[in-house]
Specification:
The chain is an alpha+beta fold. It is 33% helix and 17% strand. Strands 1, 2, 3, 4, 5, 6 and 7 form a seven-stranded antiparallel sheet that branches. A hairpin with a 2-residue loop joins strand 6 (241-253) and strand 7. The chain is globular and about 75 Å long. The relative contact order is 0.13. The chain crosses the membrane at residues 48-72. Belongs to the lcsJ thioesterase family.
Length: 343
Amino acid sequence: MAVGTLALFYPVFVPMSVATLAYAGHRAIQLDWRTLITHFLTGPGRTSRILLLLFVVLNWKSMPLAWTVRVFHSFMYHLLPRPKKFPQRALFHYSLTSSRTSLLETDYNVHKSNSTYFSDLDVSRSHLATCLLGQGMHVIGNNAKHKRVLDKQGNVVQGAFGIGLGAVFCSFRKEIAPLQAYEMWSRVLSWDRKWLYIVTHFVVKGKVRPTGWDGKRMGPTRARVQKVDGGEPVEDWSKYVIATAVSKYVFKLGRFTVHPALVIEAAGLLPERPGEGWTGGETGTGTPEELGELDEAGEWDWKRVELERRRGMEYAEHLAALDGTNSLFDGGEDGAIGYFPLG
């Protein structure tokens, strides 16, 4: 598991990107675009050029370095302008990202290859993490100043801040056709003392809209569906789900593992919890108080947050349990089938 560090993003990649864009813009101003476009569309070999351009446009997300551009775009889109403070209920809200299946992502069954879902997940998770937790990551990344993360001896932990992907599970329900548009709905599912779990639904584009947005208006909304007894059933939104994935992230300061609750708390998304707080107790997720009766429409307090965290953990703990499958590897103790080329 490699841990990517955002410490390199600001001092290295951002200046390089700005310098590259500045040089490209300077050169673009000096070009005679009308002559170039006319020659491109009418000059010798125009058919090949137009077909090549069309191919690149339809497959841009599969081109070299396209994945890097997509992921880095999420960093710059959310982190360069400092993210606003979200309401605490936004902790379990979805972030939406849209995409479209390129021709190069299509397999021999003439639909989106299962392997390509994971590059889309990288982009969707990056948007969620940097938008929702960007404020917290900035605070934890400057731990020498804010002193939020301490080791067992009470010393301030030093090191570059990074995020590592530990595992991904994906369940496929429907196929996605070539050039078909779809959306990725990602949200925080749960967390424990080490991992932040994120669930992502691949959804048919245009079929589902949230009832509102936490920030400025970003698109159309829908009326909230009312739950009634003995009346019309609540609409089953899962019928629009194409696939569902669960991922787990780990936060690092150097080689030191940062409790996810510290990042979430630094982002202003955790209400105060009594007792040992969100990082105490045997499980490292807080003291085991009984939740008691909850008012689903009431205040978004620590009980509401803990209830949602526990609901998510019912699914996340199964993904965490799969870490033990590493012990099943026996190195071919009883032999192997064969060694094959072109892997």
